[in-house]
Structure formats: structure tokens, C-alpha cells
Design goal:
This protein is mainly alpha-helical and 310 residues long. The chain has helices at residues 39-49, 62-65, 113-122, 141-146, 153-164, 173-180, 187-197, 203-206, 255-263, 275-286; strands at 217-219, 231-233. It has a two-stranded antiparallel ribbon. It is globular and about 60 Å long. It starts with 38 loop residues before the first helix and ends in a 24-residue tail after the last helix.
């Protein structure tokens, strides 16, 4: 592993700093001073994201749980690690994670992508990837060329974090309606948006801002008010129609059932909704799907991380 002062000398040598191409309304993500964005680093991180050498089995990678074809989720109730062990929580999307106040479900989760990536690499209770060392990359021509002074865990993590920081998507019917004035929302979706923003439902109390996410944390106590402690983070609702099952434990299969959960007081306050209002909320949530995932799902081989950057 090379010293921090030498990090990214080779990767930045081509002078190609990263040029952000962000959705309307999105500010540039915060970038740690010790891990500046470069085009070469992002490209390497993209390749490593799908590299099975990150796991103890040689067959699992970041993309195994964060499948690009599923908006970087896995479609399971709870995550399954490289050795087949089931985890306690649902796999959250990585889309727009550069803007998350914390990464993971818990309020005390890591605050930077660099810190978060150590969790799946090294967790052993249960194992996620079971990463051992960068020795497997010693003879990798691309890695050696990028890091002639040496390639260690810090370099690997910083490259993957740089790539994940670029996974920013907001080209949904909702965004086209909001930012470009297009008539892209159906009448039920418009009604659902009004409900979503209303004090009556309180949806936007937790799912707020351009990313429709926390930092507000849901208390798991049924009668407690949402707080910044003792609970789980309110995740982004972007692409929510294609990232089920839902909740931190994957316990609710469909969005319709999520609405039912809250309607009957799932967080301590019942919301009286008739059938047309429930359909309106569903229509609005559907409108939050980026155009990349609006069509029928495709296989991972047809939807690589490189493809979705276009």
C-alpha cells in the first residue's frame, strides 16, 4: 500500500479530472479532499465494481448485490453474501448514494462512500464479500499500469467509491415535469404528488429534498416520532417502483402494501386514504422511476454500469 501523499499520482497523470454531468437540480456531490475525482480512477472503479476477485469465492462482486439492471439493488428481501449467508437487512440502492447523509440503514452508519465500502469488503458476521487482500491484482496489467507504485486496499476502495459517486440519475417523468415543464405526469400522479407533499400524509417529512430521502431516521418504536437516532434511515424514493421488496428488512413485497402499512398507522399515525388516493400515491411513486429503468427489466449482461452512464 502506498502512502497517502502518493495516492492517485499515476491516475491523475493524464490530467483528466472528472467532469460532472448531473441531473437538473442536483448540486455536485461532496468529494473527500484525499480522494479527488479523476476520469481514470472512475473507469478503474467501474471495472473493479464487477470484479469477482473482491470476494472469498472469486465469484462475488459489488454488482452481485447492487445489480445495475435492478437500479443497483438485488430484488431480495435481505442481502445474501458471497458464502450464501443471509443478512439482516435489505440491500439499498446505490443510485444517488453520493447525496446520502449516511450509507446503510442505521443512523450511525458510515458517512462517506470510502468508509462504507470497508463494510462489505471486511464484514465477517456474516460475510458479505470476504475480501482478503489485493494480492490477486498483483499481475493485473490495468491495475499495475494505473498504480506503478503499488496497489493496496486504500487504493481499491477509493477507486470504487469514485465510481459509485458518479451513479446519479434523475430522468424520470417527475423530473421532466418538475424541471422541464413537460406534461409527463398523469392526472393520478399529479394528485399523488399533492398528497405526498401534504401535511395529511406527512410523506415528505421524511422523504424530502431533490433525492426524496433522509437524513431523518424512522424510529422503530411504533409510537415514537421520527428522530435522528434509534432507528433506520429514510431511504431515497427514486426508482422505488423497481427496487422492492421494501423496508429495512425487506418485509413488505409491494408498494401497494407499503402504502397500506402507513395508512393503518405503521409509524404511529394512521392516514385515512380512500382507494383513489392510494392509486394516486402509487402513480406518483411510479413516476419517480428514471427512464433507464422504465422499460422492461433486462439482464445484467445487457445493462452494464458503463451502459447506464450514457
Amino acid at each position: 500500500m502506498i502512502g497517502a501523499a502518493l495516492l492517485w499520482v499515476a491516475l491523475a497523470a493524464d490530467g483528466a479530472t472528472w467532469a460532472w454531468q448531473l441531473p437538473a437540480g442536483f448540486p455536485p456531490p461532496l468529494v473527500p479532499a484525499d480522494n479527488p475525482m479523476t476520469a481514470a480512477k472512475v473507469a478503474l472503479g467501474e471495472r473493479l465494481f464487477s470484479d469477482g476477485r473482491l470476494s472469498v469465492t472469486g465469484e462475488y462482486s459489488c454488482a452481485s448485490c447492487h445489480d445495475p439492471a435492478r437500479a443497483f439493488t438485488d430484488g431480495r428481501a435481505v442481502a445474501v453474501g458471497a458464502t450464501g449467508a443471509h443478512h439482516a437487512r435489505n440491500t439499498p440502492t446505490l443510485v444517488n448514494s453520493a447525496y446520502a447523509a449516511s450509507l446503510g440503514w442505521l443512523e450511525d452508519a458510515p458517512r462517506t462512500l470510502e468508509a462504507q465500502h470497508r463494510v462489505p469488503l471486511f464484514n465477517d458476521a456474516p460475510i458479505e464479500l470476504g475480501f482478503a487482500s489485493t494480492a490477486a491484482f498483483a499481475n493485473d496489467a490495468d491495475v499495475v499500469a494505473a498504480f506503478p507504485r503499488g496497489f493496496g486496499t486504500d487504493e481499491l476502495i477509493a477507486a470504487i467509491a469514485s465510481y459509485v459517486r458518479t451513479l446519479n440519475f434523475a430522468d424520470s417523468p417527475f423530473d421532466r415535469y418538475l424541471y422541464f415543464g413537460e406534461e409527463s405526469l398523469s392526472d393520478p400522479a399529479k394528485a399523488g404528488l399533492t398528497l405526498f407533499l401534504s401535511e395529511r400524509t406527512g410523506c415528505s417529512d421524511c422523504h424530502r429534498g431533490f433525492n426524496l430521502s433522509g437524513p431523518l431516521v424512522h424510529s422503530l418504536a411504533p409510537d415514537a416520532e421520527p428522530a435522528f437516532h434509534d432507528g433506520v434511515r429514510a431511504p431515497t424514493l427514486r426508482n422505488v417502483a423497481v427496487t422492492g421488496p421494501y423496508m429495512h428488512d425487506g418485509s413488505i413485497p409491494t408498494l401497494a402494501e407499503v402504502i397500506d402499512f402507513y395508512a393503518v398507522g405503521g409509524r404511529g399515525r394512521a392516514i385515512d386514504l380512500d382507494s383513489s388516493e392510494r392509486e394516486a400515491l402509487l402513480a406518483f411513486l411510479d413516476s419517480l422511476t428514471d427512464r433507464r429503468w422504465l422499460s422492461a427489466p433486462v439482464s445484467p449482461t445487457q445493462a452494464s454500469p458503463a451502459t447506464i452512464q450514457e
